Amino acid sequence: MSSGQLRLMAVHAHPDDESSKGAATMARYVDEGVDVLVVTCTGGERGSILNPALQGRPEIEANIAEIRKAEMDRARAILGVRQHWLGFVDSGLPEGDPLPPLPEGCFALAPMDEAVGRLVKEIREFRPHVITTYDENGGYPHPDHIRTHDISVAAFEAAPDPDRFPEAGEPWQPLKLYYDVGFSFERFEAIEKELLARGLPSPYDDLRRERMKERMEKFRVPKITTRVDVADWFERRDQALLAHATQVDPNGWFFAVPLDVQRAAWPTEDYELASSLVDSTIPEDDLFAGVREQVTE
Ligand SMILES: [Zn+2]
């Protein structure tokens, strides 16, 4: 089939989110010749150092912004994607009761129009056919993730409109918008079932199970419309995530499930189709379903 150059844009909140949400999908599409651009809204300046081997080192804490840029460069190279910074400052995850106010000048407090305008400019320059982002709950309730959702939806709508942000370039109509569905209950259960069937212990402790339940009760359960088979790209996903060395515990639960168990139990990354201007049949197995036919340039 001869289709033109397909382009996929993934909008993420922090460096490392691209490697934990949809990374295998991006690696697969890159290998298939799709041009993939990650747009990272913030520099991740307020991320906690989660790798026990790198904790308590003042030289890392003092240079975290630079270190995270270098980590992002490595992850980008492993995935084979392009990557742009939207240029906002990490809002941090507020903790405590009552929650402390968000820090001045952070992404979540930036004027909507400014953030949407910057993303519209990225869309009009890159001209993606498909955009991925988070759902309205952010995938998890970090203020930057929710903001990433808000500006992605707004920019998807504004990019084709010549009256909006006229200084941000020629209008461009993206054809589909998806939400990442990272942690569905079905996936969690399928993996646990496969582990137990092989006589392996489950890495999901009561705390994790409890948190999952809480989330299911608190937030809308995403509707999986699209499952992309990426079993052969799980290794690349893990390598990319490990490149964010300060942000992940290499012995943590994310890496605890053997890849062959993941491949057998749940070989896909999953998405919810949020907006579409093309016809496609649900369930889909391709983010470009209905798009390939239209792209000839
Ligand atoms: Zn994040």
Q: How large is the share of residues in beta strands?
A: 5-15%
Helical run tally: 10
Instruction: Show unreliable segments.
Output: none
As laid out across the biggest beta sheet, the strand order is: 3-2-1-4-5-7-6
* Order of SSEs: EHHEHHEHEHEHHEHHE
Largest sheet: 7 strands, mixed
Quick one: overall form? Answer: globular
In this entry the ligands are: zinc ion
Mean of all residue-level pLDDT scores: 94
Q: What structural class do you assign from the helix and strand content? A: alpha/beta
Textual characterization of the structure:
This protein is of the alpha/beta class. 36% of the residues lie in helices and 15% in strands. The chain has ten helices and seven strands. Helix 4 (64-79) packs antiparallel against helix 9 (234-243) and helix 5 crosses helix 6 (143-158). The radius of gyration is 19 Å and the shape is globular. The chain binds zinc ion. Zinc ion is lined by residues 13-14, 17, 142, 145.
SSE topology:
Blueprint: E1 7-12, H1 17-20, H2 23-31, E2 35-42, H3 58-62, H4 64-79, E3 82-88, H5 112-126, E4 130-133, H6 143-158, E5 176-181, H7 185-197, H8 206-218, E6 226-229, H9 234-243, H10 259-265, E7 268-276
Parallel strand pairs: 1-2, 1-4, 2-3, 4-5
Antiparallel strand pairs: 5-7, 6-7
The protein binds zinc ion.
What attributes does this structure have?
alpha/beta, binds zinc ion
Brief sketch in words of this structure:
This protein is an alpha/beta fold. 36% of the residues lie in helices and 15% in strands.
